[in-house]
Specification:
Elements lengths: L5 H8 L20 H18 L1 H13 L4 H28 L8 H21 L4 H19 L7
């Protein structure tokens, strides 16, 4: 769940009664914070994927085994590339259809969005000392993607 609609962001960050109360400007969601909230959420997911013992050990094991077994190579590609691309393309299709994301090809957007995240995870797996640098690059990537493809302020 990395790139999200405004409604999805609202439901993630404003749980319970607060989600139903309008802000001073009459909106139910603070659009001015959407980019910041998205960056925070993507960072949380990235750090979880990087530091969860089971997930990180599995990813590292699959990375090594892909060179010994075509079956593991296929599984790794399906799980860490194909699935992520397909998942995000579906989200982007919905956001484009809803007028929240610029009308660009969702599959291409997914490749553009996911590829740097996969690369940053692999850098951190190989060189843990580069985590802080990778997090800065992750934040910059998400901000640039948001600013480039998001329809400003939730306007349709």
């Amino acid at each position: 769940h990395t790139i999200l609609s405004i409604d999805s962001l609202k439901s993630l960050f404003y749980q319970g009664d607060d989600a139903e109360k309008p802000l001073d400007n009459g909106n139910f969601f603070d659009y001015s914070r959407a980019e910041e909230l998205l960056v925070e959420k993507v960072r949380q997911i990235f750090l979880y994927s990087l530091h969860d013992k089971t997930i990180s050990q599995f990813r590292r094991m699959m990375t090594l085994e892909q060179f010994r077994s075509p079956k593991f190579a296929e599984l790794l590609s399906k799980r860490y590339v194909d699935w992520m691309i397909s998942y995000h393309a579906g989200i982007f299709r919905a956001l484009v259809a809803n007028g929240e994301l610029r009308n660009e090809d969702p599959d291409t957007l997914a490749w553009m969005y996911v590829s740097p995240i996969i690369v940053l995870l692999s850098i951190c797996d190989r060189q843990p000392e580069r985590e802080a640098e990778s997090l800065e690059k992750l934040d910059a990537h998400v901000k640039l993607f948001f600013r480039t493809f998001n329809i400003e302020g939730g306007e349709k």
